[in-house]
Amino acid sequence: MEYKNILYEQEDHVVTITINRPEVRNCINFETNLELQHAWKKFRDDENGFVAIFTGAGAKAFSAGWDLNDAAALESIGTYDQFRVAVHNSEGYCGYTKKFDIFKPIIAAVNGYAFAAGLESCLLADIRIASDNAQFGATERRWNIVAGDGLCVRLPLAVGYARAMELIITGKRIDAQEAYRIGLVNEIVPPEKLMSRAKELAKQICELPQGSIRTDKETVIRCIGRTVEERTFIETEGILTMFVRGDKHTEGAKAFIQKRKPAWKDYGL
User: Among this protein's residues, is 237 annotated catalytic?
Assistant: First the structure.
C-alpha cells in the first residue's frame, strides 16, 4: 500500500508510524484509518521491526480525533446484520484499535492534542511519553459520538474505573501533568525532546532479548478479564516459549555467572 496520510519509517529495529495530516491536526479519516491498519500489521509481521513509536506530524497534535467531515457524511450504517458483521470483523474505525495481536512494544510520543479517537489511538501503546504541552480528552462527548475505538475498554485499564469514567462522562480536557498524575502517561518531556526521548527508549528496548518481552506482553493481554487462577495458567504457559523460541533461555543466567555480556541469538527472536 502507498501511504498518503501517514509516514512509515524504520531505523535499524525501530519503526516510527506518524499520522501525517498536520493541516487538520492529524484527524483520522477513512483513508488514514485503512493506512494505519496496514502499517500496524506490517510492523506486527516484520521480523526486523522490534519496537514501534507512534506519533503525529507537527507541533500541535498527536491526533485531534475522527475527521468530522467523515462523521458528518456517515448517515447510514446499513442493515443491522451488515453492521453486526462489520463490528465483529473490524480492526478499528480510526486505526488498529480493536485488535490485541501486536505483542511487540509500542511507544506513543504524544505531541499536543490527543482527543477522542486520538486518545484511543495513543492507548494502543504500552508506554506513553508526552510533551509538556500535550492535552488529552474524550471530546467526542461534545458531538454525541460514541467511543468506538477502544476508549471504554483500554482507558479503565490504564487509569482505573473512576478516573476513566470521569473523562468519558465529562469529556473534559486534561493537561500532561494531570495525565501523568492519574497514570495515563509515563513520562513528560519538553516538546523539542519528545522524539529523541522516544527513540532513546526504543533503542534501549531493542537491545534486550525480544522473546521474553513479547511473551510477557502477550500474557498480560490474554489475562485481562480472566480469573486469578486462569491468569496463573496463562502465565505458566508462557514458560514453554523459552524452550521453543530461537534464543537460549539459559544464556542470561550463564552470562551473569561467567561475568560476561549475554550473546543473544538474533536478539532473542
Answer: no
